[in-house]
């Protein structure tokens, strides 16, 4: 498990032994899993538990803004 980004009270984590498609796990008050390149190439929510709607929107916005960096991190850890 590697924390690849921190912002707005969230930790964006990539598990080194995880599976495709490329995604991050977001931890804050609750947790979410977000595919880095879903339909149309945009980030896509996979699941969320215990996350307020506003926080989820904020996490999705951050992933969209950091998409290129996060994909680069995924590739660095998964080849």
From TrEMBL:
This protein's superkingdom?
Answer: Bacteria
InterPro entries (UniProt xref): DUF4160
Task: Offer one Pfam family short name for this entry.
Answer: DUF4160
Name of the protein described by the UniProt record: DUF4160 domain-containing protein
